[in-house]
Amino acid sequence: MTAADLRLLVPEIVLIAAAVTIYLGGAFSTARRAWSWIAAAALLLAAVALWSQNPSADGGSLGCDALARYVQWFALAAGALLVSLASRPLRFDGTPEYVGSLLLTVAGLMLVAAAEDIVLMFVALELISIPTYVLLYLGRDDAESQESAAKYFFLGVLASAILLYGFSFLYGATGSTAFSEIRAALDGTTILPPGFAVFARLAMVLVFAGLCFKVAAVPFHFYAPDVYQGTTHANAALLSVVPKAAGFVVMARILVAAIPGMEPYSWGVVLAVAVLTMTFGNVMALWQDDFRRLLAYSSIAQTGYILLALAVGLAARDAPGAWNGIVALWFYLATYAAATIGAFATMEYLGRAERRLDSVDDLAGLGRTRPAAAAVMAVCMFSLAGVPPLAGFWGKLLVFGGALSVDTSGTAGWWFTAAAVVGVLNAAVAAAYYLRIVAVMYFRIPLATPPARGGRGAWMSAVACALLVVGIGIYPGPLMRAGNFCDQQLPRVDAGAKHHSPPFGRQKNPPPPQSAPQFGMAATKKVSTPNAYHIRRTLVLSQTRVTTSCHIIFK
Amino acid sequence: MDVLLLTTLFLPLAGALLLGGDRNWARWGALAIALAVLGIAVVLVARYPGGTAPFASTDWPWLDWTAAPIDVRFSVALDGLSLWLFALTALLMVVAVLVGWEAIKEQAPLYYRLLMALETGMLGVFVARDIILFYVFFEFTLIPLFFLIGIWGGRQRRWAAMKFFLFTLAGSVLTFLGLLAVVLWVYYHPAPEAASGRMTFSIAELTAALGDRPMDPTMQIWIFLALFAGFAVKAPLWPLHTWLPLAHVEAPTAGSVLLAGVLLKVGVYGFARFSLPMLPQAAATLMPWLLWISLAGVIYGALVALAQSDIKRLIAYSSVSHLGFCTLGIFAANRLSVAGGVLQMVNHGLATGGLFAVVGMLYERFHTREIADFGGLARRFPRLAFFTLVLTLSSIALPGLAGFAGEFPLLVGVFQRGWAGDAAPHALQLRAIAVLSLAGVVLGAWYMLWMYQRVFFGPERTGDKNRGSGIGDRGSGYEALDISNPKSQIPHQQISGSLSTNPDPRIPNPDPHTAGPYHFPKGEGTIRDLSPREICCLTPLVVMIFWIGLQPGFFLDRMRPTLDDLIAPVTRACETASDLPTADRIPNPESPNPEPPLQ
To answer: What is the ipTM of this complex?
Structure first.
């Protein structure tokens, strides 16, 4: 830990300090509003600290590339929206714990974004998970929420164990925990003893499986509908944004950047999971009546689209600019998060502490009783459905454009084209249930006017989300550009060695050369090759150590 | 940058965002905006210079991104293909605002805001010169219409709105993939001299690029099918038309007018704008298939229309039939047929839009749309009968009216395509199609005139629910419909005082014993012929129908250069196909081979 590292950590430190202060102060005062303001101030302070950081600083295990920056800003924005969303007075006295845990998850997401080391990344992921378990338990004593919290906890621990198991193979195969060294060990510049590539492949599968839980991808999605339904709107919003963002960051860092040479295997796995996830989520969502359950399936389906972008990123990393999937991933994630938080915030606003709005039918006639709230909800739903000119449309444009750009000289292009067709048809299926919510709001007779006592914070959060969705829809350029920087600074395998061969058969001119800045490139560092015996020993030891420690932690 | 054209796009959008207040403010505001847009459209049409150069163009960067080569632009312009559809949209929007003037009572500001949003979307579709911008407008039109059908529609409005949206969306997402594939193909196959790695989305540039470097035929067919999915649902082509009757019948009158008048044309417009010029080889290869599908729509729509008992449903199916004619003309890709097809789109918008407005007026008066509930209306409602007659006759293509001016060149073009030469591929099929399409004309005359006869001639039977009860017990239907129902939506302006106190000379028979259904026995009042508002609503349509019918050259000349450019690639593709000395292409009369030759 150097001084540079510490300076990079200032925003996270601010957030964690604020969280600790709020936890402690909560013993003396439980005024919800005051703690929400303090949390908002902490987020603002962290934003200032992030803004004033020197972007070129390079601290060992902490990265500060564009991807880290993007996700950190994303985390702060999402954190502000969530704090605002959850700012109404609750029935129980757990307010400070609630706000503090929220800040910890935001800090965790920021750390995940910056982590350049397996261990730090795992710790940061736990910094998201453990406060989330607390949030799910807080102040909820009915059986349903107990079930949802228990389910999330046990499955979350299991997923962490799988992830850690994958990390241990990665460490065992390469002898290092730093991404740059892992990359260097695997990208062909260093000769590994024969058979070691298998470990990397195993690591890839295990890491991806563990992360599938975080992003709620099939077949690790089963918890999501139950957990969302059993918890509050605020928690559901948190679950559908923060762990997902963290999961995708780790996927990008490890699958795309840190395990070079695995793409021929990984894109197939990711693509299959993507298609299954979007189809399963969309089809299941058609039959849901509970709002949070419906949005849970919606978030599963949206994960499918983001995974499709990731698959494109793995298969066509060298495709030009917007079409290589990684840009689409970050752009899509942001538009999805804005629309989803907006939908949950509207629901929170429309309810009241004693009576929450749970079912889709509770929205009947909202277009007449609460026109503004209905408009916000409709904007979010249309954006999630991908109808232009809202933000979601541009996300779909990038994802499907990327899928069509994948090289057709092999079978990959064929698979991706088929996936794009399945994807757009899925978008049409998804429109059915998003529109159903809109139809219930505008086409049905109002049964009762929703109380709309969810607080000004929830309303502000909802309106901000709707404005974001419309604003990005009208002028998507800046956000896409930000996504592009993420892509350019994410290390490539070897930009010169592998040319992207374009889709649609022949090619007359080579595509314009990529001039992406290369950070921490593989070629610059070389790991001293460990001998086979050493590696095997390390592998076994590290597995034993890591898995037992994992068990100890969670028992 | 052209201020006028931009105003037509952004003025309604501003209206959609800002209109408010009470019902009166909203509807007068909407009318003012629609009239202003119509005025600008007239100015633009008057200034249109002809030729093939885009007119009144604005070209702004929208998503210009140098790091990635994407170059999506906000690019709008008029040309010969879009000119008349653009003007038609502006005209029909005035009609649409007027037809709902009295009928829309609930949430009126929202209604007019949605209409204005729809106007921006519809105008935008026709003027967009960038693929993404086109698609944005194309999809955006769904949202206001979804609400218009779902909130102000008939009994099955919710289902109709959902079905409309989902059908159209399911098709158009595939179109989206197809358009993206076109863009990417052009990007990955740049011209040898082109140095910039810019990914263009400009329709003109893409068309030119695909003209220089055509795609390989298999790829063309795949992309053609992807584009076809969305445009065919939108048009709608048989057998993808099933959403249309439901949406039409359930939509409020303005929704039906705009749906039939403008939105169906978007599909055909898409074929003419994208499918033919960009994928000429596929269009030529698939031509018999496409023509058969269009012909099936023509005949099927006409036959089903014959069997309808509901006027609105009848007109909805007649749209399927007429749009089949339009696509027949477009897909035949002959100079005459395409010009006729585009003009036929305009005519259909005028005639069918007007007929839907008439149905709305009938429904406002009698609260029924069953043909069997009407009879002999011509005597009591001479003005309504006159306007309906002109619209009907134009719809069945009477010479001298607009329908003929479009249908005649269209059919001549189709025949020319069929008799282009014995060596032309599928000559026999094309001839069969040309001959059979005449059956559609006959059937069209049958169901339209039969409907007109049953509603406007014969014994008076207006609004009488007891069908066939004839003259004897008239009037009971009114009591049942209006007086006993306090929530009756007949506007007060149309129910004047009782006959004895009403000196209106338009009511020809003041004797209450013979006045029949137009008399409220309890002295409530009468149902009148067209009000000045409704006459204002229908007159421009009728004037345009006569103008196009009597002076079609004025309209055809302005679009012809552009259309010739658009179909030139298909013509070339057809010629090369027929020039090839392959004997097996000459169809065998015993077993006409429907398989398109894949080259």
So the answer is: 0.85
